[in-house]
Structure prediction request, 102 residues.
Amino acid sequence: MPDLTTTPPGRPTPPLPEPSYARVVVERIADQLEQPGDHARLLQDAGLRRAFNTAAAEQLHALPTAVAGDTADKVAALLPDRGAATTHGQYARRLRELARAV
Prediction:
């Protein structure tokens, strides 16, 4: 029986999806926070939680449960501290910088 756990010689390993699932979710959270009229509003925990849940549901719904859960956990761990007087727009900019690094 052939060894199916290694890539055959001369055949490159297929690349991972680009951009990563985590990056797409982080970018979508930023999109949620930059809705018209929200840019200058102070960001509250409930608003961040709503943006996170919406982005995760939109971007991860078609993935296997384990992959979606791992990705959501990774994104939650990556989110920067909100700070006391951070606006939606300021946080969205920080998320876009983070997304480039993910």
The mean pLDDT is 87. The radius of gyration is 17 Å. The helical segments are 21-33, 45-60, 65-78, 88-101.
